[in-house]
C-alpha cells in the first residue's frame, strides 16, 4: 500500500470516493477516534460521500441506565463510599446523578484508577468502599489487579459494581441489525492493544466487513480511511493493522490472563443495544464476595431514559447528534440530559465542542433521509 504523504491523502481519498460512486459509511468504534477526527479537522475534510459515524465506543455512554441507577442507590446507603472515574459523576439517572447525591451528603470520591479505590478501603476500614468499574478491555485489567490485591489482603470492606464491556460482541450486535449501514470499521487502537488484531477476524469472516486498526494522529486515521475505501472499492473484506508498533496479532497476553483469572464473559445490558450475549464481564465464583450488588442485596431496575433524548440512536450510529431535539437546546455539557453529552469521549460532547453539524452528502442508499444514516449498498 502506497503511504500517504504531504497533501496526497486528500486527493487519494477523493479519487477513491469518486471511483466508489456512492455513499460510504465507516464507523469509528472508539470514542477517542471520534474526538480525534473532530480535533484534527479530518472529519470535515473527507469527501462528501464518505461519512464517519460514531459507534458504541464511549464506556460512559454505553453503561446501561439500570447500572447508573444502581450506583446512585449504592452511593446513598449509610456507611458507603462510592469510588468512580470522573466522567461518571454527571451521568443522569432516574434518581439524579452521583454528583447530585454527593451534594446531598453522600460520599462519592473520584479516583484515577481501580487501585485508588482499594486504597480508599485501606484508609477507611470502618466504611464500605464500592468501586464503579466501567470501561472496555483497556480498563478491565486494572480492575482485575485491584480485586486480586483486595483478595490477597483480605479486605472485607471493598466491593465492585462491575460494568465492564467487550467491544467485539457490540460490533457483532450492530451488524446483526438488518438495517445497519456500516461499510467498514475503523477499529480502536487502545482496546486492540489488549485484545489483539486477530480478535476482529470474526467480523471480517462472518460479516464481510473491512476492519482497519489505526492510531489517533490525523495521518494514521487518513491512512486507515483510505485502506477501508480501497477495500470497499474492490468489494473485499480484510483485516489490516496499521498500528503495528503497539498492536500485535494476539494482544497483551498478560492482561488477558488477568481478565481470565478474575472475570468470565456474561450476557449483559448496554444502553440502546440491549442485552448482548457474552458482551460483559462478570466476577468468577471465587471473587463474587466482592460483588456490591450481592453484598447489599440490590436488584437492577429498568432502563428509563429521557423520552426526548436520542443518545441511544447516536450510540448505534443511526442518527447524528444534531438530529436530537435536545442537542444544544436544553442539553449541553453544563446541563447534560444524556451520557453522550457528559463524557469527554461522547459523540454529542464532541459535536458540541467542535461545532459539528451534518455535512451535505450524496443521497443515501435506499432513500434514507439526511438525518438517518441509511443502509449502505455493498459493491
Describe the structure.
This protein has 16 helices and 11 strands. It has 379 residues and is α/β, with parallel strands linked by helices. It has a domain at 60-165 and 252-295: HypD, alpha/beta domain 2 (Rossmann fold), CATH 3.40.50.11740. β8, α12 and β9 (239-241) form a beta-alpha-beta unit. α1 runs parallel beside α12 (218-234), α2 (31-39) runs parallel beside α16 and α8 (140-153) packs across α13 (253-262). It is globular and about 65 Å long. The model is unreliable at 1-6 and 358-379 (pLDDT under 50).
Overall pLDDT: 90
Structural class: alpha/beta
Helix content: 25-40%
Count of helical regions:
16
Ranges where pLDDT stays below 50 over 5 or more residues in a row are 1-6, 358-379
CATH topology of the domain at 60-165 and 252-295: Rossmann fold
Main β-sheet description:
5 strands, parallel
Q: How are helices and strands ordered from N to C?
A: HEHHEHHEHEHEHEHEHHEHEHEEHHH
Tell me the total number of β-strands. Answer: 11
State the fourth-level CATH superfamily of the domain at 60-165 and 252-295.
HypD, alpha/beta domain 2
Strand order of the largest sheet: 2-1-7-8-9
**Termini gap:** 21 Å
Write the layout of secondary structure elements.
Blueprint: H1 8-20, E1 24-28, H2 31-39, H3 42-45, E2 50-54, H4 59-62, H5 65-75, E3 80-84, H6 98-103, E4 107-110, H7 114-123, E5 128-135, H8 140-153, E6 158-164, H9 167-176, E7 184-187, H10 189-195, H11 201-207, E8 211-213, H12 218-234, E9 239-241, H13 253-262, E10 263-270, E11 274-283, H14 292-295, H15 311-315, H16 347-354
Parallel strand pairs: 1-2, 1-7, 3-4, 3-5, 5-6, 7-8, 8-9
Antiparallel strand pairs: 10-11
Amino acid at each position: 500500500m502506497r503511504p500517504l504523504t504531504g497533501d496526497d491523502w486528500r486527493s487519494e481519498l477523493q479519487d477513491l470516493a469518486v471511483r466508489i460512486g456512492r455513499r460510504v459509511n465507516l464507523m469509528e468504534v472508539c470514542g477517542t477516534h471520534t474526538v480525534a477526527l473532530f480535533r484534527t479537522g479530518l472529519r470535515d475534510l473527507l469527501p462528501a460521500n464518505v461519512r464517519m459515524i460514531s459507534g458504541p465506543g464511549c464506556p460512559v455512554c454505553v453503561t446501561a441506565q439500570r447500572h447508573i441507577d444502581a450506583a446512585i442507590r449504592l452511593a446513598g446507603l449509610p456507611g458507603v463510599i462510592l469510588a468512580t472515574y470522573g466522567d461518571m459523576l454527571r451521568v443522569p439517572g432516574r434518581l439524579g446523578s452521583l454528583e447530585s447525591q454527593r451534594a446531598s451528603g453522600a460520599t462519592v470520591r473520584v479516583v484515577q484508577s481501580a487501585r485508588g479505590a482499594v486504597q480508599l478501603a485501606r484508609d477507611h476500614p470502618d466504611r464500605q468502599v464500592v468501586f464503579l468499574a466501567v470501561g472496555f478491555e483497556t480498563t478491565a485489567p486494572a480492575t482485575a489487579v485491584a480485586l486480586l490485591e483486595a483478595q490477597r489482603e483480605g479486605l472485607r470492606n471493598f466491593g465492585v459494581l462491575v460494568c465492564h464491556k467487550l467491544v467485539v460482541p457490540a460490533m457483532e450486535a450492530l451488524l446483526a441489525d438488518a438495517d445497519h449501514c456500516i461499510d467498514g470499521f475503523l477499529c480502536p487502537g487502545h482496546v486492540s492493544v489488549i485484545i489483539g488484531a486477530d480478535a476482529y477476524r470474526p467480523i471480517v469472516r462472518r460479516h464481510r466487513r473491512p476492519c482497519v486498526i489505526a492510531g489517533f494522529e490525523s495521518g494514521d486515521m487518513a491512512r486507515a480511511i483510505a485502506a477501508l475505501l480501497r477495500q470497499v472499492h474492490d468489494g473485499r473484506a480484510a483485516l489490516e493493522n496499521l498500528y503495528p508498533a503497539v498492536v500485535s496479532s494476539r494482544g497483551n497476553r498478560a492482561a488477558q490472563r488477568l481478565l481470565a483469572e478474575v472475570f468470565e464473559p456474561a450476557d449483559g445490558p448496554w444502553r440502546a443495544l440491549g442485552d448482548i450475549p457474552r458482551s460483559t464481564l462478570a466476577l468468577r465464583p471465587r471473587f463474587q464476595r466482592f460483588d456490591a450488588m450481592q453484598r447489599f442485596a440490590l436488584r437492577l431496575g429498568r432502563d428509563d431514559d429521557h423520552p426526548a433524548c436520542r443518545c441511544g440512536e447516536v450510540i448505534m450510529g443511526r442518527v447524528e447528534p444534531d438530529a436530537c431535539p435536545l442537542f444544544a437546546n436544553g442539553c449541553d455539557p453544563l446541563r447534560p440530559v444524556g451520557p453522550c453529552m457528559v463524557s469527554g469521549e461522547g459523540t454529542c460532547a464532541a459535536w458540541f465542542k467542535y461545532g459539528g453539524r451534518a455535512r451535505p452528502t450524496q443521497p443515501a442508499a435506499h432513500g434514507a433521509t439526511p438525518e438517518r444514516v441509511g443502509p449502505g449498498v455493498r459493491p
